[in-house]
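Thread: quick sanity check before group meeting

JM: Hey all, I'm pulling together slides for Thursday and realized we never actually wrote out the predicted structure for the chain we discussed last week. Dropping the sequence here so it's in one place. If anyone has concerns about the input, flag it before I start.
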Amino acid sequence: KDFPQIKEAPQVIGVMNLNTSSVDLRVIALCESETQYAVERAIRQKIKEILDANKIEIPFSQIVVHQSTD
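JM (edit): ok, ran it. Output follows.
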């Protein structure tokens, strides 16, 4: 209902990878011709909003650099 270009409800296939700086999900949705990129962006935005609303942070790599004071 949020995305009129989508013909059927998106299906969450599952978690594809747990990486050091990402959690890769596979979501598929049947959409109208030539709208796939706009639908993809909209679905990603909706996923981000849901994660934020549930206080789930996206992991990111951190590098600690120690400098010598010599």
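AS: nice. The mean pLDDT is 88. The chain is about 25% helix and 20% strand.
JM: adding both to the slides.
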